[in-house]
Amino acid sequence: MHDLLADASGNVPAGLAPLEAVLTDVTNHYPVLEWIRRSPAARLLARLAQSSGSLTHQALDTLSPDANTAYVRGLLVTAGVLPPRQENLARLETWLAAKLAQLPPHHVTLVRPFAEWGVVKDARRRAARGRYSLAAYKGDCTDIRVTIRFLAWLDDQHLHIRDVTQAHLDAWASTHPTQRTRLIPFVRWVHARRIVRDLEIHHRPRQLPGTFQDEATHQAELRRCLTDIGLPLPVRIIGALVRLYALPLTRIVELTTDQFHRNTEAAYLTLDRHPVLLPPALACLIDEQIAQLPGPQSLQSHPHLLLPGAVPGRPRNPAGLADQMKHHGLPIRAARNTALMEAITDLPPTVVADLFGISPATAHRWSQLAGNSWAPYLAARQGSQP
């Protein structure tokens, strides 16, 4: 361990002493030794330890943004060598700086203020509330990319942004149907600053949820999650949380162990701001999951995440989890839609919004859907029963 972190003089820098303690203070040294021998991340860590520069987030940002850099960063944060930061927000800021450096100057004059004041500012606000997810980061990057493509299209048409008319915008939207909604933030931004005249990208009617489960299937899958010991423990917990509380995977992977708490009578999980009572079977599953988490001295651990990912300090990838849930016959979308619909038919929309941590507008939309579409569905189901 000493050789891995030693500098050119053969000494471990004082700043890396906590990491040396993490790597040596383990019950079983063989996985750590195997990681040191075989992992490209370990070789990167050794190079950083031997370099003369200071080891900071900014220094790591100059490296290739690959899995090895992410692993080393997570390990250093977990060990306390680097301070924690909102990684998705930092990735957005780093990505934006690199993207702006590639653009022609006349594009930068528009993209930079739009991105910094229309996108990054909102991302910082969401990150401060702990709600800036990986999906949000990817969506913001897509908004900026589409804006850049639109400006390149204007160049091809020999148009300046101030000369764009609704006909021009409609022509672009018709030839880029999959990107049209991603340009809406930029169009609103330039309109608010009076750079363009009245322009609008017309919203397509929002599609209502079309996949639901019947009650028997929904209850059978929930029962399976709570009782089937053949399923992996994380799969059981995720499946139950989706079917009981309509939580999206992007929120489940961000759950921390300190959101789970017990008293002498019951167990609770804090969702958003409010603790939610857990069924005893699910509480036992979460207890078991927490007990199985590696200690803070492990390479693969983060003491706060309920479902830690492969990179220290990082949650699991929601897309990969969705595939895993589907593999085990526990689909996410239909189950979540059904759980949310059942909740909205039993509780006022404002209560559902507070309880499940969704926006009041979303809860109201689901309430309207329940009144317009769910009642005939239930009536049809009841009529088909013997």
Tell me what you see in this structure.
The protein has 386 residues and is mostly helical. The chain has helices at 2-5, 17-24, 30-38, 40-50, 57-61, 67-79, 87-101, 105-128, 134-156, 166-175, 184-192, 215-227, 233-245, 249-252, 280-292, 318-327, 333-346, 349-356, 360-384; strands at residues 260-262, 267-271, 274-277. It has a three-stranded antiparallel sheet with strand order 1-2-3. The longest helix is centred in the last third of the chain and has 25 residues, at 360-384. Mean pLDDT is 84; it is low at 296-303 and 372-378.
Mean pLDDT metric: 84
Q: Number of folding domains?
A: 3
Helices, by number, come to 19
N- and C-termini, Cα separation: 70 Å
Low-confidence stretches: 296-303, 372-378
List how many beta strands DSSP finds: 3
| Assembly state (oligomeric) | single chain
The topology string of helices and strands comes to HHHHHHHHHHHHHHEEEHHHHH
- Quickly give the structural class: mainly alpha
Largest sheet: 3 strands, antiparallel
